[in-house]
C-alpha cells in the first residue's frame, strides 16, 4: 500500500508540473529524472 501511495504522489507532482509547463516538454522529461535521482540519494543516505 505504501508503494501505491508513493506512486500516486509522484503522479500528482509530475502532473502539476506538466500543467504548469504545457509548452516546455523538456521540463516534463527532466523533472521525473531529477526526482528519481533525488529519491535515490535519499534512499542511499545513512539516515
Return the structural class.
mainly alpha
State the share of residues found in helices, binned by percent: over 70%
Q: Could you list the spans in which at least 5 consecutive residues all have pLDDT below 50?
A: none
What is the mean predicted local confidence, pLDDT?
59
Please describe the biggest sheet, giving its number of strands, its sense, and whether it closes into a barrel.
Answer: none
Cα-based radius of gyration, to the nearest Å: 12 Å
Question: How far apart are the first and last residues' alpha carbons, in Å?
Answer: 23 Å
Count of alpha and pi helical runs: 2
Q: What is the strand tally?
A: 0
User: Outline, from the CA principal axes?
Assistant: flat
Question: How much strand content do the residues show?
Answer: under 5%
Order of helices and strands: HH
Key terms:
single chain, 47 residues, mainly alpha, 83% helix
Written account of the structure:
The protein is built from two helices and no strands. 0% of the residues are buried. Helix 1 runs antiparallel to helix 2. It is flat and about 20 Å long. It is an all-alpha fold and 47 residues long. The two termini are 23 Å apart. The model has no long low-confidence stretch (mean pLDDT 59).
What layout of secondary structure does this protein have?
Blueprint lengths: L1 H19 L4 H20 L3
Helix pairs in contact: 1-2
Write a short abstract of this structure.
Residues 1-47 are annotated as: Disordered. The chain has 47 residues and is mostly helical.
Amino acid at each position: 500500500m505504501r508503494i501505491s501511495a508513493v506512486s500516486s504522489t509522484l503522479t500528482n507532482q509530475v502532473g502539476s508540473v506538466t500543467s504548469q509547463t504545457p509548452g516546455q516538454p523538456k521540463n516534463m522529461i527532466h523533472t521525473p529524472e531529477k526526482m528519481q535521482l533525488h529519491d535515490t540519494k535519499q534512499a542511499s543516505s545513512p539516515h
